[in-house]
Write a structure and sequence with these properties.
Length: 267
């Protein structure tokens, strides 16, 4: 597709030169998680211009940060920079959280296995984001109160759980091929009890083609979940499910991040 070619050109040209001073990282000692967490940062291209010193910017929190940081950063630049003139979304602050234990952090329920596992720490991880990370971002950068959460696979599962939390600090959610197989039955029950407040926020779900053998376990699950969400929502236009027939679980993030950001930023 044409926009993918454009993105590849961006990665080859706009991620060099003067813009490199917009990339940085920080470490945050979390009392909630009892560990130090590393985050990668991309600031808007025009963040340091004198005329913008009073301007604040939306915040995008990206899970699996080390994997998707450069891809997502390039897409955001392509969609928001006046260099391209697209203006498909506002210039934004990208914060990408690097992983320590993704199974622990991205799952809110514990699955019993023969061998011990660390799953089920998702609530605590969301508390870390809400109570420690976001306040740090607001203190350190010129951020405004609009916040988007992006997650893929188990990260997409956590994104769905965050959406269903009426007290979530996020305004928009991009869930890419979410692993709802983790606890499918509980997810269905959770939708039925989700507060109406959750449906005042935008949710985009991307589904990958995992082949005929996994069709029932992936696309149909996503379809059923989306139908349940639609039944609960009074704002159908705030929900979007997109199926990528020609993309698998690993390739779908590139297109889904672009389309997801376009959806949640549309007026």
């Amino acid at each position: 597709m044409n926009y993918l070619l454009s993105l590849l050109l961006i990665f080859g040209t706009q991620f060099v030169g003067a813009q490199t001073d917009k990339f940085s990282s920080f470490e945050l000692q979390s009392e909630i998680l009892n560990e130090k967490r590393t985050c990668l940062v991309q600031l808007p291209e025009n963040y340091d211009q004198t005329s913008n010193y009073e301007q604040s910017y939306p915040v995008i929190i990206l899970l699996d940060g080390a994997v998707f940081f450069q891809t997502t950063g390039g897409i955001i630049r392509f969609m928001s920079s006046n260099r391209n003139g697209n203006y498909l979304m506002p210039e934004s602050i990208l914060i990408a959280i690097e992983n320590v234990d993704r199974r622990r952090d991205f799952t809110v329920t514990k699955i019993v296995t023969k061998r011990g596992n660390t799953s089920g720490g998702g609530r605590k991880f969301l508390d870390f984001i809400h109570k420690e990370l976001l306040p740090y971002i607001d203190k350190t950068y010129r951020s405004d109160k609009h916040r988007t959460l992006i997650g893929h696979s188990l990260g997409g599962l956590l994104t769905l759980n965050a959406f269903m939390d009426a007290n979530s600090a996020f305004d928009a959610f991009i869930s890419i091929d979410p692993s709802i197989w983790w606890n499918d039955m509980q997810m269905k029950e959770k939708v039925s009890t989700t507060s109406t407040d959750s449906f005042t926020r935008k949710l985009y779900i991307a589904t990958a083609n995992q082949g005929e053998a996994k069709y029932e376990r992936n696309k149909k699950r996503h379809d059923r979940l989306f139908e349940l969400l639609q039944k609960q929502s009074a704002k159908q236009e705030f929900l979007e499910l997109q199926y990528f027939k020609n993309e698998d679980h690993r390739s779908v993030p590139l297109k889904a991040i672009y389309d997801g950001l376009k959806f949640v930023n549309a007026y």
